[in-house]
Predict the structure.
Amino acid sequence: MEDKAQIQEAIKIQGEVVRKLKSEKANKEQIDEEVAKLLELKARLGGDDGKHQFVLKTPKGTRDYNPKQMAIREKVFNTITRCFKRHGAETIDTPVFELKETLTGKYGEDSKLIYDLKDQGGELLSLRYDLTVPFARYLAMNKITNIKRYHIAKVYRRDNPAMTRGRYREFYQCDFDIAGQYDAMIPDAECLKIVHEILSELELGDFRIKVNDRRILDGMFAVCGVPDDKFRTICSTVDKLDKMPWEEVKKEMVNEKGLSEEAADQIGEYVSQHGGMDLAERLLLDPRMAQSKQACAGLSDIKLLFSYLQLFQVTDKVEFDLSLARGLDYYTGVIYEAVLTQAGVSNDAQNGAEESVSVGSVAGGGRYDGLVGMFDPKGRKVPCVGVSIGIERIFSIMEQKAEVSAEKIRTTEVQVLVASAQKNLLEERLRLVTELWNAGVKAEVMYKKNPKLLSQLQLCEETGIPLVAILGEQELKDGVVKLRVVATREEVDISRADLISEIKRRTSKA
């Protein structure tokens, strides 16, 4: 049993942390994370009778979404879905859990992050880690050889979540993939065009898309003297270059992965290089790289990719970066990752300067030609290329932008409130709101028999309802409805027969 005094001291310190964050008007997610720690400490202390107290909270690495957050989320999803559909994609869905065997051996060092479900005497199951492996299983199982599909769904990872940076254990992925045998680099270039379109449309701030090729990496490792059996593990280490300085990455390669210092230094020379088509042309002339056939094939494809990207008008944001590795085992060709270089959220209250939100990668993907074949009994391959949009990180930025902007976010789509100016008009209000609903108008009434007109108008102000249809004794006699525009307070009498078309006309402009 922990010493009670120690826990009380920890509660006191944690309470100070929470108070400090609140006084500094820190990020809401950061505050929530520290409050959760405080509640956990209080639970360990127990109640007055010394029993463990149940703490009402969401599990670690998960969160609830309130109506305002959901409104932002819907807007983002709609933007992404519109883009996927614009490029001719259809959608599918797969189970949230798969056979454990389906997921095993597909994720390299990240396999330890898979959630295994408790064995209950049936099949051994795991929660899906991404949407790509289930997609490959779906293609192999249904013998599909070509499809352009998108899939938006939740995935699960036993990560140590940094929720302030948009990292969770349960989160959405938005995937777009093209499966089928096509001419080189055309589908790959379209995937990059899609990333460019989505990030530009969401106005998240400046971004760049880094591109590399697994064949170039493998060829580079070979000519630098990395043993074949160490390719994948060294690849996972190189993938950490966006989070760690080269010195630490080198140390991991040499001390933990057993690579020679000389090989690590040669890798270091290459991974520091980035550019465009010019870099690919330069590396094709590199005497060391020329020794590797697969590296040359990758470099030729990068050149071809850039020629298509020029036609798609996206080369301003794309760069060929030899340090990009993407740790997943199933990539076989082109790989890419989009990172925000400046997230465009200013926080004047704190420091009077533009403050960058630390979110890292917001999209990633690549070519995986062998994955479907791993599931096919005859090993038949279906070439695939795809991209995954890191939606949770995008939400983090959008929410912070909404917090610092004065713009009010509507959480409902109600177009008109049916109100009454006098008492005893509940039945008339219900008749009118039914007419509106039946005509497809988004309408509401207050759930009171005799609400005050002022409180009905205040409800519209608070929730952003643009119109009020007001009924009174005189209006009923004249067969009209008083239509009030909430923003300007302008009022007009509209005949009951024209009301629906007038509401639709006024709200279609909004």
About this structure: The first helix runs from residue 4 to 23. DSSP finds 19 helices and 18 strands in the chain. The longest strand covers residues 147-156.
